[in-house]
Design a protein that fits this description.
This protein is mainly alpha-helical. The chain is built from nine helices and six strands. It is globular.
Length: 265
């Protein structure tokens, strides 16, 4: 089974309809979105009002989440390249969506929506972050076909071939690399299962699932950055995404500790 991935060379285009190309990346994103919609619909099947608000939220989150993810990627990953080729900014099918940008945009959208409709913000962030890691795991399949977000060179049976065009200049002589996106997908599935188990305990306070997701994904991302090759800027030996992960963990843990003390008081 692993030998298939070790030898198979994926293509970004799924199929073509005349001049129109359909990309694997887009298909993976579509499946991730539909899976999220299905799960949320199932989890809230007895809450009609909640479902109605989730449908409205999902519409805004898809639009502004994609915009936020793209803007974040453009600004912090390869700004010089996009300034030289501005048309590439709108070509989402080429890849380049940053989850932190989507999360930031999503938080803003959910805050504004719940405030306008006088809703408990954490009830909705809990539901959305519950399904988010599963959607992320599915979406990582698009990275495989786009040959992006891979890691350091390796020759193990589970490592994948990367075309010479997609290899960093200093690694042109290497053929196979760590499938970091696959590692992250696997860890995201574990995180999803953990959140699902937490969700079953209905007596837990709103916001806990959101907190566990933010901490859990920050830990996952912190570890994966040691293998990823797409970002090179570092400070004190850590990439800026790792520093962001540390900041998120500290802030969320502090809020949880403060909330626990307030409950005891």
């Amino acid at each position: 089974m692993l030998e298939i991935f070790h030898n198979f060379k994926p293509q970004a285009i799924l199929f073509s309809l005349g001049p129109i190309n359909i990309f694997w990346y887009g298909l993976a994103a579509l499946i991730a979105i539909l899976t999220g919609i299905f799960l949320l619909n199932y989890l809230t099947r007895k809450e009609k009002e909640t479902q109605d608000h989730l449908w409205s939220l999902f519409f805004y989150l898809i639009i502004f989440g994609l915009i936020g993810a793209r803007i974040y990627h453009v600004l912090f990953y390869n700004l010089t390249y996009f300034l030289s080729k501005p048309l590439e900014i709108v070509k989402l099918w080429h890849g380049g969506l940053a989850i932190h940008g989507a999360i930031i945009a999503g938080i803003v959208v959910i805050y504004l929506y719940t405030k306008k409709n006088n809703l408990n913000i954490f009830k909705y962030t809990d539901l959305l972050t519950l399904v988010l890691p599963l959607g992320q795991a599915i979406g990582r399949a698009g990275n495989y076909f786009n040959q992006e977000l891979f890691g350091l060179p390796c020759q193990k049976i589970y490592c994948i071939p990367i075309s010479q065009f997609n290899r960093p200049e200093i690694y042109q002589s290497f053929t196979h690399f760590h499938p970091v996106f696959l590692y992250e997908a696997f860890l995201n599935i574990i995180l999803f299962i953990l959140l699902l188990l937490i969700y079953k305990y209905k007596k837990l306070s709103f916001g806990l699932i959101t907190a566990v997701y933010l901490i859990g994904y920050s830990i996952i991302r912190f570890m994966m950055e040691y293998l990823r090759l797409d970002v090179n800027s570092t400070y004190l030996g850590l990439k800026w995404v790792q520093w962001l992960s540390i900041l998120i963990i500290i802030v969320i843990c502090s809020l949880l500790f403060k909330n626990k003390r307030n409950i005891k008081a």
